[in-house]
Write a structure and sequence with these properties.
mainly alpha; 2 domains; two-stranded antiparallel sheet; 8 helices; 6% strand; elongated
């Protein structure tokens, strides 16, 4: 029988994940849409396009296009023609999108982690990173997030 403390921690992780997931939907976006909105908020000009977004998120151009289209319909992203290459379309976050990003569930979670006053943030980051490497977690579809977390851990060192 596993240590009851470990089971309690695992249950708390499940509950907190469900709460964050619910927060993302309360704002009217899916987790994939939030991820896209975040991507375009931080993408440089050469990466603010459909192909770069699809590659970065390990998805097809069709799926990426549908996600972007939904966000354009919601008024949080806009597509514009590249001034240099007329075949290329640039994706940018609108003012409405920037306001929505202020309510980003990931930002809320980061604030919660900060407020928890962890004595060793690096140890916490390493533990979360180790969880992502557990059997049953598809690291290929999570590779972007794993790389980002790995970079965050490196910046803490």
């Amino acid at each position: 029988m596993p240590d009851p403390r470990l089971l309690a921690i695992a249950e708390m992780l499940i509950i907190s994940s469900a709460q964050i997931y619910a927060m993302s939907h309360a704002a009217g976006l899916t987790a994939a849409q939030w991820s896209a909105l975040r991507y375009f908020a931080f993408a440089n000009a050469s990466a603010a396009n459909l192909a770069s977004f699809a590659k970065h998120h390990g998805t097809t151009k069709g799926t990426a296009s549908r996600t972007i289209s939904r966000l354009v319909e919601k008024g949080v992203l806009v597509r514009t023609q590249d001034g240099v290459d007329k075949r290329r379309r640039i994706v940018q976050v609108t003012t409405k999108g920037k306001k929505l990003l202020a309510k980003d569930p990931v930002r809320t979670l980061a604030d919660m982690i900060k407020e928890s006053d962890l004595e060793d943030l690096d140890a916490f980051a390493q533990a979360v990173f180790a969880l992502l490497k557990c059997p049953g977690i598809d690291l290929e579809t999570s590779r972007v997030h794993v790389l980002a977390l790995d970079g965050a851990i490196a910046s803490l060192e």
